[in-house]
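Fresh eyes needed here. I'd like your take on this protein's tokenised backbone:
***
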Amino acid sequence: SVVSSRPLSVAPNQVLCDCGKCKCDEGWYGEACQYPTTCNLTRKKSNEMCKNSQDIICSGAGTCQCGRCQCANSEENGLVYGKFCECDDRECIDDETGEICTGHGKCYCGNCYCEAGWHGDKCEFQCDITPWEIKKRCTSPDGKICSNRGTCVCGECTCHDVDPTGDWGDIHGDTCECDERNCKAVYDRYSDDFCSGHGQCNCGRCDCKEGWTGKKCEHPHSCPISVEESAKKCQGNSNLPCSGRGKHIYGRIFICCFKDRVSENMFLLVLLITNLAVVTGHGICSCGRCICQDGWFGKLCQHSRKCNMTEEESRSLCESADGILCSGKGSCHCGKCICSPQEWYISGDFCECDDRDCDKHDGLICTGNGVCSCGNCECWEGWNGNACEIWLGREYP
């Protein structure tokens, strides 16, 4: 017969072990002498102590004895166990051989954990390749097993389903090396399109249509919008060019991502062939979007990848008033919160703002004539109203 190898919890000083079986002292009984013969608990109190998380007494696989579950093991093989009899190792027994995990693995709480070279729910299948070959087949180009995004079974990767809804793509490839989420358009925060709607996603990389470029096909080869419109897009969450991180030159051009309080002669300015692109200390402003240099990231290239503070110091600066790190809606980098790009509507120093609270007009947040700042529209010059829907100028733009 099948007997579990799981060690039993033995009550101290109450048991004598004789040839693998317990001889209990007076007043105790059970396979490990763990149950008292007399109980000072009421039946109600006892049953409450025996309920599992679903409020089922001993998981329906045992009886409650003075607040402790006595699991039903008719053959005294110990296959049903656990504080609430929640584990049933009988599920690991192979129907054909009658052995636990077919003798090629170990069972824990009803699940088989197979030895190398074996697989299956009950370790019933043997791989026809060597362990070395198994590892070789599952190793991704970056040297990781299934790219750390899947499990290797007999030389084949089973990729993790990172997002069952499919909203942001999935993981696939022979070694789970392809991540379609990398194709999500992150520059246009009001779009969920992959490759910005201007290309095809191929193994986590965008193949752009003619006339478009960029990692997410977010940049046109030539800018279709006016200089003024592009400047507005670089404005950020204030009425200053590039949210106060830019400088206005030549009457019409804005320098994006300009480092705060640094003299102009420290930057190399080069006008490109597009009608707005300007190279600065941290990136290029191209058609209303910042393209960051290596070592910088963020919508305005405002975040340096280097950090000169400890993790503890950084986290202390990212805690919101309620003590939660970045309001639970972002990550902390060098003392500043970086809000989740998947949740485009989250903003604020501590990711505490929801831009969906901003008024809309014609289906556009702030009517497209301003930016949403912590639930309120900040209108561009010449516009007014809760949704920036009112033009105050003499001529309509």
